[in-house]
Amino acid sequence: xxxxxxxxxxxxxxGQRVTISCTGSGSNIGAGYDVHxxxxxxxxxxxxxxxxxxxxxxxxxDRFSGSxxxxxxxxxxxxxxxxxxxxxxxxxxxxxxxxxxxxGTKLTVL
Amino acid sequence: xxxxxxxxxxxxxxxxxxxLSCAASGFPFSSYGMNxxxxxxxxxxxxxxxxxxxxxxxxxxxxxxxxxxxxxxxxKNSLYLQMNSLRAEDTAVYYxxxxxxxxxxxxxDYWGQGTLVTVSS
Lengths: 110, 121
Fold this sequence. Notes:
The complex is a heterodimer. Chain A is an all-beta fold.
């Protein structure tokens, strides 16, 4: 069981907006540690999508956005495209001296 | 071009050992913390270990503590993972990933292609 909780799956039609939640606790997200998000396309290595809660690396479309509040964080994807179909993971740090990942969310574009 | 290339994976018997390497290029390796992250077949990402730029700070996941050892050689732009007393549950693709210049709480902005470790008799 992952320290950070994500929904196993989400789906949306092309053009729609979807959000993926990442719920932690007072020892990780709630302690003020940054949340990062990754996209993993089938058969490939993860790619950094959002860092420091709400920052996009160069080359990531502005359709992707991140937010954080209290012990939770969210990734929003607007204008959904077929190429967005992938697994998404959140990551933070925990006071137990460990990096923690969410269990991952599979996004299906209908 | 920035590159991280893992090597050293393969099939090993339970209780055996393996040493993974990650060759870095295209950036000042000695300035960045590095992580090993693994992914069991069909499963999610699991953080394994972190080492700071100068090797002064090292962290391990509880699941590997005492069995896996992270190290780096900045002169050779290389990251290593010595894996001892391997178990079936260590079977996974192992990725090396570049951390940040600040510390362990940074995101991982570049990842290698991964190397598969299979622990089986």
